[in-house]
Specification:
Strand content: 5-15%
Largest sheet: 4 strands, antiparallel
Number of strands: 4
Order of helices and strands: HHEHEHHEHEHHHHH
Helix content: over 70%
Number of helices: 11
Shape: rod-shaped
Length: about 290
Amino acid sequence: MGKSKPKKLKERIFTSWLTSMVSITLVLFLLGLLVMILFNAGRLSDYVREKIGFTLVLREDLPGQEIDKLQKALTAEPWVKSLRYIDKESAAKELETELGEDFTGFLGFNPLFSSLEVKLFAPYTHSDSLALIEKDLIQLPQVREVFYQRSLVSVINENVRRISIFLLIFSGLMLFVFSVLINNTIRISVYSQRFIINNMMLVGATRRFVRRPFVNKSIMYGIYGALLSSLLLAALMFTYKRELSGMIDFNDFLLMGLVFLIVLAMGILLSWISTHIAVNRFLKMKFDEMFF
């Protein structure tokens, strides 16, 4: 009977700290996910912007050497990310696939022109830059017409601005929520050992001596939580590597390392601060106050 009580107490303490570590791990995982999104927000913005481009309708019966000359000239421009040449036959096949019927058979001829699809780098996709580029392109002798979706450009640019502002506000709120969650989790863990803290004070232990094991253990669980959350985050990203390839650079190991260091630092810092505050609270309590 005498051995069962200490054993039960140890099990309760272990369960309490295990619950804390799991909670800290999940919170740090969400924090790491948020940091990853923030660091890749610019890349995500560029990924969306670089879907914007021009369609250059070429003049009819343009010689092949003139088309090659135009492609070389455009490739040399700093704002061109990629080019795609579409001849009349390919354009007709693509439209036929979209319509689901052979319109050339109905018309008796192919009314389409050869064209070039030009994709731009993100810094050149603002409305004023696009207007200047359009003006230069329309003056090219090989080009018949220039098209791009002006309304789509305005919508994308406006949405990118709104999302950036939203991310900043959302990040601040989430950081506050994560701090509160970790703080409450550690407070509950320390609360389960409040009588041990009081007993240590009664036998003459200093506050620093009482606080040290709690802080050290909390920091260790913060480190373990950061390691586990980083593994979960890495598993999530590499599971969906193909889907996220345009938005996250998986070869940027410096960025990955920085995210891990931030998660580790936040795990240690939040655990240390929360434990320090929680233990101090119970150090100031009288014995009869610990029952409420």
